[in-house]
Design goal:
Radius of gyration: 17 Å
Structural class: mainly alpha
Strand content: under 5%
Helix content: 55-70%
C-alpha cells in the first residue's frame, strides 16, 4: 500500500502474476495479502486457508511462528465473516485450529476464549440457516461416523 492507504496497482498486478506462476506458499500468502486489500470477499478466505496450511505443514515445529500464522488466519476469517456473514466455515476452521494450538501451547484461558468464539459463530450460523450443525461440522448435527448415537 502507499502512504495514502491505497493499494499500489503495480503490487496488485505482481501479486496476480505470482499466483499464476506456481509459487510457493510464502509467496502465495504475500500475494493474497495484497489482493485481499483490493477484493476482500474473494481473497480473505484464500489468505486464511493458505495461512492455516502453512502453519500445519511448515511451522508445526516452531510454535510461535505457527501461532502467528493461525492468528493472522483467524483475523482474515473474522474480516471475511464481517463483510459477508455467510462465510462462517472459514472462521470456524481458523478458530478450531487456534483453539487446538493454544491448548497445545499450554494457554488454556486463550484456548477457551477461542472455543467460546467458535461456539458463538456456530450458533449464529446454525440459527441463520447457514450451517447444518451448530458445531460447524458439515454433516447434519455434527455427527461423526456411520450411524447410531
Amino acid at each position: 500500500m502507499n502512504h495514502h492507504g491505497n493499494v499500489d496497482r503495480d503490487a496488485v498486478i505482481r501479486a496476480q502474476v505470482l499466483l499464476g506462476s506456481g509459487i510457493g506458499i510464502h509467496q502465495e500468502i504475500a500475494a493474497y495479502r495484497v489482493l485481499a486489500e483490493v477484493s476482500p470477499l474473494t481473497y480473505l478466505s484464500r489468505l486464511a486457508r493458505a495461512l492455516l496450511t502453512l502453519g500445519q505443514e511448515q511451522l508445526g515445529g516452531r510454535p510461535e511462528l505457527h501461532l502467528a500464522a493461525v492468528l493472522e488466519a483467524a483475523d482474515a476469517a473474522r474480516r471475511l465473516a464481517e463483510a459477508e456473514p455467510g462465510r462462517d466455515q472459514v472462521l470456524l476452521d481458523a478458530l478450531g485450529e487456534l483453539q487446538r494450538l493454544l491448548d497445545a501451547l499450554g494457554r488454556p484461558e486463550e484456548s477457551s476464549a477461542a472455543g467460546r468464539e467458535r461456539v458463538e459463530v456456530g450458533r449464529r450460523g446454525f440459527a441463520a440457516g447457514r450451517l447444518e450443525s451448530p458445531t460447524g461440522d458439515p454433516r447434519p448435527f455434527g455427527r461423526r461416523g456411520g450411524g447410531g448415537y
